[in-house]
Amino acid sequence: MTPQNELRLLPWTDPNGKPCYLSADSQGSHLSRLADNIEAVQLGMANELLEEAAEALGDKDAEPEELRHLATTLTEALHEVLRVATSRGHRLLTPVPPHEGDEHPRLPAAAFG
């Protein structure tokens, strides 16, 4: 099995709510690209939700049920954003093994945007 520091945290969990990982050797694979796309969607949705939250909090007539729903969805979005940040932060700090003939490990492509 690949060591823990060589696994990518994926933006979803298994049916039991446990984290899912992908081997770092799978960069550029279909599953890796799918995870990238899902992360982008999650971040975009969190941004939209943040805008909605700002509007709702500015509405003095907002119903308690509306605010409770907002708090629930903000909590879910924050959980997803933290998972993305954890995954991306780990990939930034984990050097990519050198190609054959290279003397030093390289930074992952994610470190450059």
Description:
With 113 residues, the chain is mainly α. The chain has 2 helices and 2 strands; from the N terminus they run E-E-H-H. Strands 1-2 form a two-stranded antiparallel sheet. Helix 1 packs antiparallel against helix 2.
Quick description:
With 113 residues, the chain is mainly α. The chain has two helices and two strands, in the order ββαα. It has one domain (4-94).
Strand fraction band? 5-15%
Tell me the number of structural domains: 1
How many whole angstroms does the radius of gyration measure? 18 Å
Question: How many β-strand runs?
Answer: 2
Instruction: Walk across the major sheet and give the strand order.
Output: 1-2
Helical segment tally?
2
- Assign a percent range to the helix content: 40-55%
Please tell me the overall pLDDT. 80
**Poorly predicted regions:** 1-5, 104-113
Q: Kindly name the structural category.
A: mainly alpha
The general outline is elongated
Oligomer: single chain
Q: End-to-end span in angstroms?
A: 29 Å
State the order of secondary-structure elements, H for helix, E for strand.
EEHH
Describe the largest sheet: 2 strands, antiparallel
